Every structure is written in structure tokens, then in C-alpha cells.
Amino acid sequence: MPPGVGLACVFFLCVSLRGCFSGSRETAFTYAISAAGVVNAVSRACREGELSTCGCSRDARPSDLPRDWLWGGCGDNVKYGYRFAREFVDAREREKNYPKGTMDHARTLMNLQNNEAGRQAVYNLANVACKCHGVSGSCSLKTCWLQLADFRQVGEYLKEKYDSAAAMRIGRKGKLEQVDKRFNAPTLEDLIYIDPSPDYCLRNESTGSLGTQGRLCNKTSEGMDGCELMCCGRGYDQFKTYKHERCHCKFHWCCYVKCKRCTSLVDQFVCK
Ligand SMILES: *[C@@H]1O[C@H](CO)[C@@H](O)[C@H](O)[C@H]1NC(C)=O
Ligand SMILES: *[C@@H]1O[C@H](CO)[C@@H](O)[C@H](O)[C@H]1NC(C)=O
């Protein structure tokens, strides 16, 4: 399987619950990014005053902040978001109570670890943001606060964790241990998995993979949506299709926009 196809699966292909909730590397990423999303949303909602149980961040002033900068703008409440996500997102795993040493229990441990890695990502990437005050942009005075990183940055960070995720197996006393002991043990920030990834290129109902046959792909893209990767080297068919678009839009006073409908013939590609 070409690199990247596995992760593409999560977004494009993997709709069968059984496949997505196995113990693969892609599952690890899905749990982490979902947990990260909760921390992100709750932290921001606190700051914007949308929740009655929390408000702006009350984090202490960072010790390395220059002395004449003010600390105390309304920051994202990452501490609250983190705590909330730990209670809320992990609850469904904790409720399960599978016997130790079973594959189901191992999966629960895996999910908890990956949830934590997702929360850590948002927590650790949050940073100090500042705004200038002072005479016409002189920036003689600054106010600073804690701010979430752009969520895309969190996604990219977790994608790196996905690439370096640690393979685990059931060890002594039902705990997870790393398959290859030569590597450093995973930290709370790392993703782990216990099952190999299914082959997402081919349809397989028992793993929940839909396969990529018949999927639209982009002939010129070198990314995951490109025909090369997505069709797993099997090639693609080309056909022409009509595409309808709004065009020649005009603004009329006042106030609406009127468009025409244009139709063009475009090439489309589908995986063999
Ligand atoms: C489906 O996947 C399972 C588990 O990886 C494998 O044992 C089986 O051979 C696959 N079936 C097909 C039809 O490829
Ligand atoms: C196909 O990929 C190219 C290169 O990434 C991009 O510029 C183009 O917009 C894509 N086409 C479609 C239809 O998505």
C-alpha cells in the first residue's frame, strides 16, 4: 500500500464502523484529532463567554514575558478545555470495563492513550499572543494572552505523530508494551496502535475497507486525492462530464447578485 493511502482512508473511504474502530494507526489518528477538536472548541467557547461554567484563561504570566508587557488579555481557556475533554471524551472508553488481557481491553487502552495525545497536542501548541498599543502603532505597550494554535497546525502535528506512531501489543498484566523495544517508549504525546492497517486499496468487508475502485481522483495532483496514490497503481479511466456553475455574476443596486448558469465539458477520472 502506498504511503498516505491509509490516512486518506479515514477521510474518504472508511465509513464502515468496524473498520474504523479497529486498532490501526488510522484509528489512532482519528481518536487523537477528535479529542483535540473537543479541547479546541471548549477552550475557545470559554473565552468567548459561551459557556456558563468557564471564562477566560487564568493562566499565570509566563516567566519569560518581557517585564513591560501586560499580561491578562482574555485568553483561550486551554486548561478547562483539556479537563473537560478528559472527562467527556474518555468516559465512553472507561465505561466499557473489558477484562484485562483481552483485545477489547487493549483497544480501550489504545484509545485512551490516543485521546490524551490529541489533548496534549492542543495544550502544548497553545502559545502567547500579543497586541500592540501605543501612539500610532509604535508598539510601546503590549497586552498578551494565551491563544490556541491554528487547528491546521494541530492537524499537521498529529499527522507527524501518525507517521511515527508506535506499534504495541498486550504485555504483562494486560498492559500495552512496545513491539520493538529498540525504540524509545511512547510518551503521553505519542500515538500508538495495536493492529496493522488493513489494505485500504482493496475492498474487504471484514476490515471495513471500501477499496478505491470507482473513486474520482485528480489526475494532476500528487497528493492523496491524486490518481497515482488513490488508485494504488491500478490506473484510471477517463470520461467527460458536464459541470454546471454560476457565472457572469452581476451586482444589482440594492442589494442582490444575479448570476447566469454556465455549463462546461470537463474531464473526470476514476480509479480502475
Ligand atoms: C480481508 O482482510 C482480512 C484481514 O486482513 C484478510 O485475512 C482477508 O484475506 C481479506 N480478504 C480479502 C478478500 O482480501
Ligand atoms: C487537481 O490537483 C491540482 C494540483 O494539486 C489542483 O490545482 C486542481 O485544482 C485539482 N483539481 C480538482 C478538480 O480538484
Question: What does this protein look like?
Answer:
The protein contains seven helices and eleven strands. It is flat, with a radius of gyration of 24 Å. The chain is of the alpha+beta class and 272 residues long. The protein has a three-stranded mixed beta sheet with strand order 1-3-2, with no helix packed on it. Helices cover 34% and strands 24% of the residues. The chain folds into two domains: 5-197, no CATH class; 216-271, Wnt (Wingless and Int-1), C-terminal domain (Endo-n-acetylneuraminidase fold), CATH 3.30.2460.20. The structure holds 2-acetamido-2-deoxy-beta-D-glucopyranose (2 copies). One 2-acetamido-2-deoxy-beta-D-glucopyranose (NAG) is lined by residues 198, 202, 204, 206-207.
Give the names of the bound compounds. 2-acetamido-2-deoxy-beta-D-glucopyranose
Helix content: 25-40%
Q: How large is the count of helical segments?
A: 7
- Give the SSE order as H and E letters: HHHEHHEEHEEEEEEHEE
In which order are the strands of the major sheet placed? 1-3-2
Return residue spans where pLDDT drops below 50 for at least 5 consecutive residues.
Answer: 1-6, 8-20
The value of Rg in angstroms is 24 Å
Question: What is the rounded distance between the termini?
Answer: 16 Å
The global form is flat
Secondary-structure-based class equals alpha+beta
In round numbers, the mean pLDDT is 88
Number of strands: 11
Question: What is the makeup of the main sheet?
Answer: 3 strands, mixed
β-strand amount: 15-25%
**Total discrete domains:** 2
